[in-house]
């Protein structure tokens, strides 16, 4: 066994088969990161907002964790495989390689609708929009704000989301609806000290 480990260490240190090994390591990192990110989130959401037995809650937690971990691992695998292949074919990196690889990976992996993919896509979408706004300022496409723009950014998104919650609730994601119901509607309901301070309802 020690000889096999030593041989593997020599192979990994040699730099041979680097593109292939990078794909394998990317798959591993995607699986680990997906589990690390999803498990605590699913645990909190299940115990805060999901009704049902302990078995049902843990089943939900492990299904969400597995889906997130598997999908992220598969996406990284596809992305790194395609970028590596395009670089080998063209003998250099091109700016369009990441877009093409991620576009195909996004369609194949994150294009299948489920709650986990919806949350991942919304998370990435918000970061993309924020990044595009910064890029537009940095490149001079729009003028740099004279003052601090962050308070206005916060004001608009919170104003819009609470208006949506009160008047267009079905348009919001289910987990956001649950969180907002708990914060803004359930706080209007009580009939004793017990469900005023200790329990929600």
TrEMBL record:
Pfam family, one: Tim17
GO cellular component, one term: peroxisomal membrane
Organism domain of life: Eukaryota
Family matches, as InterPro entries: Pmp4 (IPR019531)
Record protein name field: Peroxisomal membrane protein 4
Species for this entry: Potamilus streckersoni
